[in-house]
Amino acid sequence: MYFFFLRTPISGRTQIVLHTMLKAVILIGGPLKGTRFRPLSLDIPKPLFPVAGLPLIQHHIEACANVPNLKEILILGYYPASELSQFIADMVQEYKGLIIRYLQEFTALGTAGGIYHFRDQIRCGNPEAFFVLNGDICADFPLVEMLNFHQERKDKLVVTIMATEATRQQSMHYGCIVQDRETFEVTHYVEKPSTFVSTLINCGIYICSVDIFQTFASVFNARHQEYYNESINNGSGKETAIIYLETDVLMPLAGTGRVFALQTNNWWSQLKTAGSAIYANRHYLELYRSRHKDRLAQGDVKTEEGKEKKCNIIGDVYIHPTASIHPTATLGPNVSIGAAAMIGPGVRIRESIVLSGATIADHSLVLHSVVGRGSSVGRWTRVEGTPCDPNPNKPFAKMENPPLFNSDGRLNPSITILGCSVTVPSEVILLNSIVLPYKELTRSFKNEIIL
């Protein structure tokens, strides 16, 4: 679970006037998180997995950087600092003028425990409010729109939630919001209810006034009191510092006139499984069309000889400048090619992510798949998965995140995933399969996990 917190002081004037020192805080999960994202998270922290050519949380940083006068970003998490040090250095270089730091939690503190633990860092500079962005989501973040909405009601509320519509069945997998349609006040909130409550769901994007720290303190103190009052304590006491924003804060505050929700129709999705990375890749590439058209490939590719030639590009495609693409290859739509990847002659890739250092040999086909770092696909090989996109016939349908196995114990069809440094031989078919890192295949596989 990942979060961004933008400390955003707000004036009472019609024009938004921000404090000279604003902060963003990203709360990311610990090293045991991202289990459903395996094997892609075995060799790289899930927040750093590249989607549309950028690490996942860089899309969040980029959205936050577009908020006027943002000065500092704090990244909170339980990952060892060494795993994020290079990323932090790259972000400081990329977004000049922003101070970006990483603060490591002493244990995984839940979705709000980290906010409270580092409250002095967040409140430093005396802001009036801060953004909270759940980092395991992908979206077209309407942060400025939320800021305007919060500013108009800042005397009434402590939390503004970004909400979106879901199907009746899917809504029960999210936090459900009951809202007064005239005032936008949240009158009732339930996290993952067992029965239907509402089709309006929590997107995991918030603006919080600093008054919310009083609520955090109340929850924290109550947990400590319970811990010390119990005659037998089997735990270490660390669990008293774990606070969940959804259940410990939003549920009690709903109906008090202090929580409001802004509904958006912008694209939004969770990134829980590897299959959802392909879906997120497609939408971020689509956003590049209007905001970063320079990131999309135009057919000019760098060959092994260093010459610029044309390859066949269909739709939205991202190609890292250091990748080598043969002119006869056909890429797209919705393909991302990582650094130093090599794509051979006659290769066809569609709806896929090819990570850094991977090699796709002559005349191979890659569909709905993720090819891991340093992996190799032989000649005339077919690597194909099954997409698990939202049902286009159901309005407001969201990305499904099915379990790895169905009730019969069989592998659910999904995208094909090659872990890092996997070798796939020539002239084989790999269909709906997951291959763990450092495996060398010798034959074709279908609907299997290769351990």
TrEMBL record:
<feature type="domain" description="Nucleotidyl transferase">
    <location>
        <begin position="23"/>
        <end position="221"/>
    </location>
</feature>
<dbReference type="Pfam" id="PF25087">
    <property type="entry name" value="GMPPB_C"/>
</dbReference>
<feature type="domain" description="Mannose-1-phosphate guanyltransferase C-terminal">
    <location>
        <begin position="313"/>
        <end position="450"/>
    </location>
</feature>
<dbReference type="InterPro" id="IPR005835">
    <property type="entry name" value="NTP_transferase_dom"/>
</dbReference>
<dbReference type="InterPro" id="IPR050486">
    <property type="entry name" value="Mannose-1P_guanyltransferase"/>
</dbReference>
<dbReference type="InterPro" id="IPR029044">
    <property type="entry name" value="Nucleotide-diphossugar_trans"/>
</dbReference>
<dbReference type="Pfam" id="PF00483">
    <property type="entry name" value="NTP_transferase"/>
</dbReference>
<comment type="similarity">
    <text>Belongs to the transferase hexapeptide repeat family.</text>
</comment>
<protein>
    <recommendedName>
        <fullName>Mannose-1-phosphate guanyltransferase alpha-A</fullName>
    </recommendedName>
</protein>
<dbReference type="InterPro" id="IPR056729">
    <property type="entry name" value="GMPPB_C"/>
</dbReference>
